[in-house]
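Researcher: Structure for this, please.
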Amino acid sequence: MKADVRRSGRVKCVVRCRSCRVATCISGGIVVCLRGPPFLYLLIGISGGFTMKRVRGLSKLLCRLLAPVAVASVALSGTVLHGQDPNVSDTATAALPDAAVAELLAPEVVAEPLGLVDPTEGMSSAVLDGWFAASELRLPETILRAPRKFGAWTLDMGEVGLHIGSLASHAEVGNVVDLNGGRAGSMYQTLNLIPGVPYRIRFLMSGNWRTNPLKSRTLSVLVGLQKFTFTMNKPADWAADRMGWEERIIDFVPQKAIVGLRFSSENPGLPDGPAICQVSVLTKRSQPGPLESIPVPLPPDLADYVVDREAAIVLGKAFFWDQQVGSDGRTACASCHWNAGADIRTVNTLHPGVPGSAFGHQTSTGSALSEAAVEHFRGANLLLAADDFPFHRVQNPTEPASADSNPVTRDRQEVAGSEGVLNRRYTWHSSGASWDEGVDTPDRIFMANEVPVRRVTGRNAPTSVNAVFFDRTFWDGRARRYFNGVNPLGELDSAARVLAANADGSMSPVKILIDNASLASQAAGPPGSDVEMAWSGRSFAELGRKMLSLQPLALQRIASDDSVLGPYRDEDGAGLEEETSGYAALIRRAFQPKWWNGTHLTADGYTHMEANFSLYWGLAVMMYESTLVSDDAPYDRYAKGDHTALTAEAKEGLRIFLNEGKCINCHHGPEFAGATVSSIRGVLSEPDGHGVTLMPMAVGIAFYDEGFYNIGVRPTAEDIGVGATVPGLGPLSYSRREQLGEDIDPLNVVSPDRRVAVDGAFKAPTLRNVELTGPYFHNGSAKSLTEVVQFYTRGADFRKTNIRDLDPDVHGIPHLQGNPEGIAAVVAFLQHLTDGRVRLQKAPFDHPELILVNGHSTTSQPRATDNLLVLPATGAGGGRSLQTFEEALESGLNLFPISNPRPTAPELTTSAVEAAPVEPVAVEPVPEPAAVEAVPAEPAVIGPLDPAAATLNP
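Model: Predicted structure, token format:
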């Protein structure tokens, strides 16, 4: 079984048993799992000294009473056993006072509905039980003779052979037991089950045919009093490293809480017999509830900054969609988050790949990998095609990727990212202009016909819809939960300061940390990114000076019934009414006066409002994005009792999602995501949840950042994700920071000698509206949900390379291998997570008009010409249905082209064309191109991703 160590609800530190999902206290090696009266069971394992706050004293008492048992847990090196242990007497708790037992029998239960869980599952070299990963046995083959115990199993008859590598387990996960270790053997363990609840026993069967190859192998499984027999003939190509495993399933409903599970050989007299691996027992639990059951997490001290929430939302929506924010005058936050909060553009969206991290390469092999990626880069301004995906292709997409019989037929290091801005250096801004002045900087990578083209982000753009539920944002979590008012790095940047006004009109620098504000942290990054939105060197104060001189959304039409902006739009239909709803007016309405009413200038000559623009920007965008909650998908209606909301196929997909697929382990809760506020700190959160979990990994046990997983999409060194270190400020990872003595949780100490597995780990994104948010994975390497499910079906593409940090649940899904109907069912379920309002761009997902750049129509001197498309404005009633990324690849984007493309910079920014259902906005004059300053060329090596890049992930 797996035990999750985490905080949830009002419980400060808990372990949740994945078989019963009950919160338990742990301390000094003893973990108590309470199924409920009259049963009291023990989980034995190393706990790292955790304790539950409300029963702290009792857990210490248990530790003293059961200290002899705790010694056994040390020998198991972190192994957790579930159920009655034959070495522990039922009288072990008899000495407890009645009041103490009563307290134990009324624990706080974690309010996180989960699907099918696996009470016997273990991980190689870490958890015993169904994986037979007994830490005390290391030989390739060990003959065990009755009577004896190994791991959670008791061998009471005959002999069995434990094979650690000498017979290959499926996908090389766990070990193998040959039930004839020289003669027929029989082994069992006791299961603690819930009477009347359906269970499924799943195991893989093969045989050891080193002798008697013509004879079939037969085993029996005894579950309680029910006996099941299975027979298998030798596969034609059988070998010790190619076992030909076949899945076996037993469905049953126990009538008692204590049930024996026995595996026995039915081949007496043979020295080699039937073989088993990866035994699991699944029990059905309730699926996640509707999203409306999760409160939207906002800062508890929001009123200290925001005085008018409605005005803040208006301001945030204008900020998010205003293309004047970009140095080119046509790049908004929405440019990378316009299609269900994501980006499905198809031209000039390739990046060579191998960015290393958000801060460059921090591994010994990263730079060499980067040079190779540049060498093999297919080039800029390419039109993506359906056949380009998936980037990593194997001969059979649903068979184990590690199998020699399933060779790799294509591997590309490239990333499908988002198109940003040219590589230019900021010089100045002319008041009232939508673009910034700047000079070209040579770019050896993003060139076409020797002409600079727009740069592309090194990670895929995830959705901004439902992003408010995350504890941290960006794929690597560098947008912290605490907003410091200046940049994404929150508490990591101790020098960050904003200005507060004094009574005499002067301003004083103050340090702020606003909790539950990761979206504000994230929003503060992109406007300064020289990949996404800005000429390099533009400060937030300069952006503030620019935007305060402009009419909000001046170049974009707004629908009269826009659910937020409609009442504030200008009478000509373009932009907001400047006098009453200009940016300065909205800031004054939205924020407390102390943050904007200073009358002095800074030492650099900025006004109070210009200097604090990052504060307004972050909080206002956060307030707007907090309204983008899609809680009316068919699944939500199903979770609330409408069983007709899911088709039969989707219900089967949900069953697989919760069971064999184990998708729920990472994409959990009503958010269908990892690293959420509710999963880390609980719905009723305490302020000190740290999000660090001790868990069995693919190999061994380690601490990791909850919600961040290495799933083997690409080799770890290509992009280390949350494993990165901010230069001069320390690690991004919660686990590593605690290990270094930073942000210590006194009840969950990660000592320097404990293993941490965070390199190559990325945040598990929300699966809501996922059919509309392709391409998929952090590198955008899959075009469709089918390709995504195929990836998980075959297992990690780079399992051996990433094994140290690899998540335990990406070793493949045998149930779906060779089962296209099952894969289709999972896809159907995922499609039922789409909210129809998102698909049709209805409120609150309506928006202003947006001009999108989709590559370059010409790439001739002196500069490339943008290919412009128009996303029409929609109001509360919505508009046309959004496309999937796959549909965009196959039939093109269903947007309105602008017939007269414009140079990339300096700008002429236009609005809708004749074919669009809205009237065009008057265009601005085209200024003369600025002189290009000669800059020495740099080597063609990919530089670091900008720490602020928005498309690196909410």
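Researcher: Any notable elements?
Model: The chain has a mean pLDDT of 82. The first strand starts at residue 3 and ends at 8.
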